Each structure stands twice: as structure tokens, then as C-alpha cells.
Amino acid sequence: MVLFAQPGSGARFDWGLAGAAELGRVCAALVVVDVLSFTTSVEVAVSRGMRVHPFPWNDQAAEYATRIGAAVAVGRDSVDDAHPWSLSPAALRDAPVVPDLVLPSPNGSAICAAAATTGIPVVAGCLRNAPAVGRWLTEHGYGSVDAPVGVVAAGERWPDLTLRPGVEDQLGAAVVLDALATVPGGLSVEAAVALAALASMPDVPAAVRGCVSGRELHERGYSADVEIAVEMDVSTVVPVLRNGVFTAG
């Protein structure tokens, strides 16, 4: 139904793969937010000069990387000297720079790979670059009723693969929406409700550290990834996915 696309507004909000598919049908640009850690990792890699290829989390990522002549990221726990790239922002900050990196993930990367088929710009948004993302979109004419922006919180997955909304992505999307709050087309009701999360959680870094996903990474020994992810407004890099590759917009 057309109503699910939140017509009549310049900035819209939804969750996960299905939400991205719905907004991707009608929006002129999408912003995908996966704070812990895909879009944060994309920002870190692109800021170092790498081209990032999103790919779903499956056994075909390495084969795809070989076919296009790229390095491939592995799971956090599989990093070694031969494979120093992973979904960890801290690892990507220290790993050798390569021209092209395939970066698979089960949520943000899978959403971006699917959204790439729409042909519209797909932006990787996170806490590090949210104001820059808002500026880039408005400067390029997005945010009107005729050229709306869809902001998608990636979320996580339950064991049965259904969507588990994540506080970190809700807050990340809210910070992006805050940067889009004055777009000429206004916010949809869904976007306005998502933005309202900031009013009840003014200390966003503390909330991300304390949420389930943040504590999970801390307990696994990846606190550095969380600390990089909660660095707010430290980057002007806007990774834009065109022709299946993230480069600096």
C-alpha cells in the first residue's frame, strides 16, 4: 500500500530490510544507519580512502571479492595477519588501506546491497557523520515531497532471523533525522516519533554504551568499536553508494 511509504513528507523513517525496500520504491535517496557497526565501519574505511562493497553475510563474500579483485572482511573473531579487515571499526582503523574492500554483514550491509538495486543514492549514516549527512542531502536537493529521503534503522536479528529493533540504530537514525528536521517537505509522523527519542535520551553515547548491543560488544572484548561508534559529529565524510560501491560523496 502506498500509505506504508509515508507519502506527503520530505523525510521518512522505517526499520530493516523490508522498511528499506518500501521506502526505496518511492524515495529519492536512502540513509541506512547501522551504528554497531556496519555504517560506522563504512565511514572509517571510506575516510581512509577505501572503496567499500556491501555484501550479505554469507559464504559467497570471499568468492565475490576474488572476482572483483578486492580484499574481504572477516568476522571480528577471525582477524589475523592475513585477514586484518573485519566489521570492527577499530580493526579497520589500523588495517592496511586497500583500494577495494568487500564488507559483509547480516544487517546494514545486506540492506545496502539490496537497496543498491533501486538505482538511487544510498548513504551510510552513523553518529560520527550525521550532521554531514544531513548537509549533503539538503545541498543536493533531497528532503522535499517530490524528492524525499528515507532513513532506515538497520536493527539486529533474533535467532529466527526476525527483526530485533536496536536502541543504537534508533538513536543513530534520530540524530540523522535531527539534521534533516528543517527539510522543506517536513518529517513524516514515523520520522518525528523516531526523532523524539533524542528528547528522552540526551546522552546518546552513554545510551549506546549501555544498550544490549553495546554491552554485547564490550563483553566480547570489543569496547574500542563502541567508543569509535559513539564519537559524535567528528567526520565530514559522507559515504554514498553508487553502482554498488561506497565512496566519499
Question: Would you write up a description of this structure?
Answer:
This protein is α/β, with parallel strands linked by helices and 249 residues long. Helices cover 39% and strands 18% of the residues. The chain has 12 helices and 11 strands. It has helices spanning 16-24, 38-47, 61-68, 89-94, 108-115, 130-139, 167-179, 189-195, 197-200, 204-210, 212-219, 223-229, and strands at 11-15, 29-33, 51-56, 71-72, 100-105, 122-125, 149-153, 156-157, 163-164, 239-242, 245-248. The strands form 3 sheets. It has a 6-stranded mixed sheet, with helices on both faces. It has a 3-stranded parallel sheet with strand order 3-5-4, sandwiched between helices. A hairpin with a 5-residue loop joins strand 8 (156-157) and strand 9. Helix 1 packs parallel to helix 5 (108-115) and helix 11 crosses helix 12. The mean pLDDT is 96.
- Low-pLDDT residue spans: none
Strand order of the largest sheet: 1-7-2-6-10-11
- By DSSP, the count of extended strands is 11
User: Radius of gyration, Cα only, in angstroms?
Assistant: 17 Å
Q: Tell me about the biggest sheet?
A: 6 strands, mixed
- State the shape: globular
In round numbers, the mean pLDDT is 96
Question: Order of helices and strands, N to C?
Answer: EHEHEHEHEHEHEEEHHHHHHEE
Into which percent range does the helicity of residues fall? 25-40%
Strand content: 15-25%
How many individual helices? 12
How far apart are the termini? 32 Å
Structural class: alpha/beta
